[in-house]
Design brief:
single chain, 338 residues, 14 helices, 4% strand, disordered C terminus
Length: 338
């Protein structure tokens, strides 16, 4: 239950992204600044935190030794995740982007077979491919139906281009985030803590964010003081606090695709928090009734995920080993994340 509560708290801080991206859009800010400044501002804060904990040198050594791994999965997990979300904010309200983002819950289930886990058995270490946690799929489908209803409720207000550019980029980002996060977590093999991993992925993706900021500068000149300040708030709230909380929650749940799916389902709280923030700060119109029904389904799916995860039994070691051997015999063997 603790990882789920931490994940839900992370969703509160993550929601600042959707609200402030809308605020920047209304003030005429370039979406590329909204994306790049978050990570540029994140870097100093994270360097200070990791250095204070005395863990900066081990991280830099690891990044130097495996720079291709760090750059590759940071590109997927941070750049491919966040740039499309900021782009989509140009075409849809923040709460709707947050709702569409919940596709990441389904994505988290579907990417499971791309990962491997080592388990100790009486016959030695067995490496097996993760299975899709089918038990979580019904709850995730409830969330997906909720997302569809939210989009349907706004279909009359949005043009075809709004729907196309507002949905597809977020869908891509929704798959990139769990893939990059888990692959990098897998690559670190428990040798680096959450703060180190977030900083490493931020530093590895920094050249891409600087390039994006350069393109924005060539288009519109320097960012306004308002956009700079709001980007700083997003960097601290969503980039540092929320990311560290969420990565910490996934660390607690690692080794169980079912529990990881439940932690990732807590991100559905962003829909409610983003809508509340926009209604209070930006005076956006109230969503139609069908969109409210969609939001309720999203939240219901998250609650069901949490309840199922909390009831998961813990297998004794000998039963777990037997289960692994049965899976291997049935053809699910695994030889041996963003």
């Amino acid at each position: 239950m603790k990882p789920i509560l931490i994940g839900l708290l992370a969703s509160l801080f993550f929601s600042a992204t959707f609200v402030l991206n809308q605020s920047m859009k209304f003030s005429g800010g370039n979406w590329m600044y909204a994306a790049s400044l978050r990570f540029i501002f994140m870097a100093p804060f994270l360097v200070a935190i990791v250095a204070f904990r005395g863990n900066l040198k081990p991280l830099l050594r690891d990044m130097k030794a495996r720079w291709k791994t760090w750059f590759g999965w940071s590109f997927v997990g941070f750049f491919v995740m966040y740039a499309p979300v900021c782009f989509a904010a140009e075409f849809e309200p923040g709460w709707l982007v947050a709702g569409t983002w919940q596709i990441t819950i389904i994505a988290g289930l579907l990417v499971a077979p791309l990962f491997y886990k080592e388990m100790s058995t009486p016959d030695g270490t067995v490496r097996m491919r993760e299975n899709i946690p089918w038990r979580s799929l019904p709850m995730s489908l409830v969330i997906l139906v909720g997302v569809a209803l939210m989009q349907w409720g706004n279909a009359e207000r949005l043009s075809v281009s709004d729907i196309l550019f507002g949905i597809l980029p977020v869908a891509v980002a929704a798959f990139a985030y769990p893939l990059g996060n888990r692959k990098m977590m897998e690559a670190c093999k428990g040798k680096l803590d959450t703060y180190q991993r977030v900083l490493g992925m931020t530093l590895a993706s920094l050249p891409l964010w600087l390039l994006l900021a350069l393109v924005a500068f060539m288009q519109d000149g320097p960012p306004s003081a308002g956009q700079t300040g709001q980007s700083l708030i997003v960097a601290v709230s969503s980039g540092v606090i929320a990311t560290v909380l969420f990565f910490a929650a996934t660390d607690m749940a690692k080794g169980s695709a079912q529990k990881l799916a439940a932690v990732e389902a807590t991100q559905s709280g962003e829909v409610v928090f983003a809508l509340a923030g926009e209604l209070l700060l930006l005076s956006v119109p109230l969503p139609p009734a069908i969109s409210w029904a969609g939001m309720l389904l999203v939240v219901a799916g998250m609650i069901m995920h949490s309840m199922v995860s909390g009831r998961l039994p813990v297998k004794p070691a000998h039963k777990a080993a037997a289960s692994i051997q049965e899976d291997a015999i049935s053809g699910h063997d695994r030889p041996a994340s963003l």
